[in-house]
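#struct-pred

JT: dropping the chains for the assembly here, can someone run the whole complex?
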Amino acid sequence: MNLQLIGINHRSAPVEVRERFAIPEKKLPEALQSLVQYPGVQEGLIISTCNRVEVLAGLKNGDADLRGFLRDYFHLDPAEFNQHLYEFREQEAVQHLFRVACSLDSMVVGEPQILGQLKEAYAVARAVGAVQSSLDALLTRSFAIAKKIRTETAIASSAVSVASVAVDLAKKIFGDLKGKNVYLVGAGKMSELAARHLLANGAASIFVANRTYDRALSLASKFNGRALRFEQLYETADQADIIITSTGAPVAIFRKEHGERFMARRRNRPMFFIDIAVPRDVDTAMNDVDGVFVYDIDDLQQVVASHLSDRKKEAAKAEDIVKIEVERFAQRMQTLDVVPTILSLQEYLEDIRQAEIDRYRSRLGQVSSEQEAAIDAMTRAMINKIMHTPIVALKSAAKDPESTTVIDVIRKLFNLQEKAKGNSATDGGQN
Amino acid sequence: MPLLWLRISVLFYAVGLLYALAAVSRPCNWLTKYVVRILSYGMLLHFVSLAETAVATGHFSLTVMSIHESESFLAFMILAFFMIVYLKYRTTSPGIFVFPLVFLLTFASALAQQPLVFTSGLMRSGWIGVHVALIFTGYAALLLSFAASMLYIVQEKSLKSKQVSSGVLSRLPALQVIDDIGYKSLLLGFPFMTLGLIAGSVVAQANFGPTYFRDPKVVLSLLMWAVYMILLYTRWSSGWRGRRAAYLATFAFLVAIGAWAANYFSTMHRFVTQ
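RK: done, full complex below.
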């Protein structure tokens, strides 16, 4: 297998550089076509997301100038960007691709989007015929490994954003969020995001209260919720199970006595305050009220930090799995490589042919050089005819990454085990 | 034979005990996965043991009458109740409290030598069997509710402390689910307890007359019923849950233990001649 990969990611380059290499979705098929038409390139795949652009190529033989491809395609001088580009070959390219698929190379390790993006890139490349047998095998394998790592390690099991931590906590309190009401007090990007997450997880309805009523109205309409006047806040707040506060108020707007009143009216059903405001909107003493749970932005971020460090530990496990899988994949590719088998098959039959001709030469007596040539041609033709079907079968087997049996069978039939040494060694590793 | 089955089921229940102990220190994946299945095998043997005793003695009431056999029956009822909760909520967490108790009860029962001999003619009455079965279902419900209260406190504390929980805490069901388990157990157990007490007083009225009210077990049982009632009432009227409800549930549970232990001081509930 001949693999080469060139890329740029969030670690190697700032966004000003990355955006120059980005390929919009619409242009991707066209870019793929020019990639596979580039000298030396047989197959190709391009991943372009906001955090990375990767060009993966299966080569005909030897080398391809992928930097040259970037230069031609983007009409810019890669020399300028040399420090930002990374390039991998063969096993290293496989490893990089596996790491990308498993989200080990992501900005937030373990995030689930990259696998989806990779699958999309694969679908596009397949559709335009840029991906064939060897890249196909590589990509299918990388998807399988990503799935394996997701189930075998806890790399993606904990929430690592403030909004998703808030949802997790809400679920720990309420179980199911179905039918739970969310109250947004004050408007802000972060509280909006948290509300969106809660709704996506089943929360029923949203109330919005804001100092400026118009702002509340516009925010409420975004969520299909209900805008309330700020003066109504204390009368209506007890209807909410989850309250997200983010006002710019200089002093706390929810204090312990409010909480006690809410709980009495709610007949002690639990309440969850998510306080994103700085200075805080909910007094610390509120957390002492039975059934009221208050998390401020620091508390949430602390949870995020601890989950992130958990992920780091899991990532180490994932890296080990990737290493093993890269090794395995390389072995598999070697097994799939049919050329040595074909060569040894030819060699084997040629040996037989020569030996038989030598054996019968004495019995044939004197033969003319013409006759000699005829014998030679005839035996050669016989052998070629015999070899034809096995070779066709081998070649078609090579295209199917899941089938190694044909190769095995042919090796066994013609007793080629010893001759194809490299192959038999990897065979032992596989079986 | 019934004793043999019982002793084997004790071995199965020991796995539950192990689960409860492990859950406190560090959760064990495979144990959580298989504990319910293992315990249900134990229950099956336990059931066989109970049934054989019933057949051997010829009467269900006799099965539940000696201290040791009633322990075995109570353990069975508690576990059955736990299984109902498990089927509905898919959580093994209440087991942290339930499994050790089930193990201890069954263990004590399995240590018993031969079935004790009953002499009191009272035992022949079918009402006694009904009385005991109903009350025990009530006990089981009360225990589950108590376990849920404890879990509620633990989970509430962990959420309030804002510490990132790991291990057993991260696996507890949601606060509201725990609350639901506790409440539904109470709700389900209360009618059984009430009917059980009524059945008991019918028998007692017929056999002892009004003096039965002075029996310590009867007094404690009525107290337990009253606390049970208060638990439900506070829940209905003001939605008490969490710490306050847990204190009450603990009190109810202690009274229940008292009522259970009162057999040793009760003249009326001592059915065995010595």
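JT: nice. Residues 126-161 of chain B form the longest helix (36 residues). Chain B has a mean pLDDT of 78.
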